[in-house]
Amino acid sequence: MKTLAAVLGGQLPKLVMFDLDGTLIDSVPDLAVATDKMLVQLGRAPAGMAKVRNWVGNGAPMLVRRALADGFDHQGISAEQEAEGLAIFMQEYGRGESLTTLYPGALDTLKSLQLLGIKIALVTNKPEKFIPQLLADTGMADFFQWIVGGDTLPQKKPDPAGLLWVMQQAGVAAEQCVFVGDSRNDVQAARAAKVACVAVTYGYNYGQPVSAENPTLVIDDLRELFL
Question: How far apart are CA 24 and CA 64, in angstroms?
Fold first, then answer.
């Protein structure tokens, strides 16, 4: 527990908040399938998993816009095109997450935090409707006391609103919290909420090393929190 305590200057946190995609689960295989099915139905070429891996992180609407634009510059995509693509994507992704897997150490980490009596929350940009079934399928349904999805509040990460809402509900001050994520959205949201941020190296940060975002701590495996 030295690593986790060291993040807060030697004291264990009272609340640990997690991102989901790219942090606890590898959901890109299912996201890529849904994205490609959407593109094909709209008469476009499929993007493939490698591209989708770099596009995820800002919620489903943004993923759809990037897929339709075949890149990060999506200014040429209209609201009507986004709405049409998003409807197809949500339908296809809603068929299940059979290819989504837990990252090594994810369950062990949640169990360890629970045994320590540390409060646990989930703050993700994934649409809220998909979260309960996904947590049930991956064995994580009983760990989170608070869950914020990408459409739970008007704002999503990198806005700190989700983190601030959880902290208010938990009655925990910023200096007693840690946020664990994988991308610049997570680091920026934590920084804006004045919360220490642990970033994992294996996630989705638009193809860039997350260490460049200057989080409080960078780890290769969630279990490093308890070394």
Answer: 22
Residue 46 structure tokens: 């499929």
Q: Which of 19, 21, 26, 30 is catalytic?
A: 19
Q: Which two tokens stand for residue 71?
A: 């890149």
* pLDDT, tens only, 167-206: 999 999 999 999 999 999 999 999 999 999 999 999 999 9
The pTM of this model reads: 0.94
H-helix segments, the chain: 2-7, 28-41, 49-55, 60-69, 79-93, 106-115, 131-137, 161-170, 184-192
Q: Of 65, 93, 121, which marks where a domain is finished? A: 93
Q: Which residues form the domain of 73?
A: 28-93
Q: Give the number of domains in the chain.
A: 2
Q: Radius of gyration over alpha carbons of the chain, in Å?
A: 17
Q: Judge whether 19 counts as a catalytic residue.
A: yes
